[in-house]
């Protein structure tokens, strides 16, 4: 009797374990299958990514075949390619675009530059160059752009025929470049306003001199125009009237003073002829 009860109990325990396993499978089976599937898919994706990257970095399809440039005026494609060490056959995926831009920006004429990869095998380079508007004497002779920035030393090959900005020194520029650039910009603004008067060849601007009392202009003929400070446009209009009056009388001026602070509307003229000087001429 005892033996029979023991065997029945074993059968019941086995049946209960079997039902427990079935219950666990019904409860946790779907989640386990999903986890295994997710692990498999993740593994495949990682493997696929590694293989895709290897293919992209080694495939001849992405070998650089051409580089196009836009915006070049003074800089040359040969110089920029040499600076960036950019050659045909390099893999486009391996190119370090920021490093290429930094390298090409070392060219003195380059103001800004943007390098773009054009897949599968081209690179485009958009260049903005400095626009030279004057030359500044700062110890050496520098080319100045429209923002008053001396961006490179003048070299014989530049072939520039631009007004000079004088009266500044290198030490002052190094000590306070912001102030120096502002003074250069003021000189450039006056030079631009003067050019708008459409002067003839002999009156073409040769130099803008920065002085403690303001600005002075020197023309190609050597005529000096002392503007002083402020009201530059009004003074330049007055200058044009004085020149017309002198021309009508067959006279030429060596120095024209428009810097009378006490009487801004008065002009003093030193004539080029032996008649020497005429002071206090009013143009109001």
TrEMBL record:
Domain of life: Bacteria
UniProt-listed InterPro entries: Cell_div_FtsQ/DivIB_C, FtsQ, FtsQ_C_sf, POTRA, POTRA_FtsQ_type
PROSITE patterns: POTRA
Transmembrane regions: none
Pfam families linked: FtsQ_DivIB_C, POTRA_1
Compositional bias segments (type: Basic residues): 1-10
Record keywords: Cell cycle, Cell division, Cell inner membrane, Cell membrane, Membrane, Transmembrane, Transmembrane helix
Any one of the GO CC terms: cell division site
GO biological process, one term: cell septum assembly
Compartments where located: Cell membrane; Membrane
Location of region: Disordered: 1-23
Residues annotated as domain POTRA: 62-130
Membrane disposition: Single-pass type II membrane protein
Protein family according to the UniProt entry: Belongs to the FtsQ/DivIB family. FtsQ subfamily.
Function, in words: Essential cell division protein.
PANTHER family registered for this protein in UniProt: CELL DIVISION PROTEIN FTSQ
Protein's name in the database: Cell division protein FtsQ
Species this chain originates from: Pyxidicoccus fallax
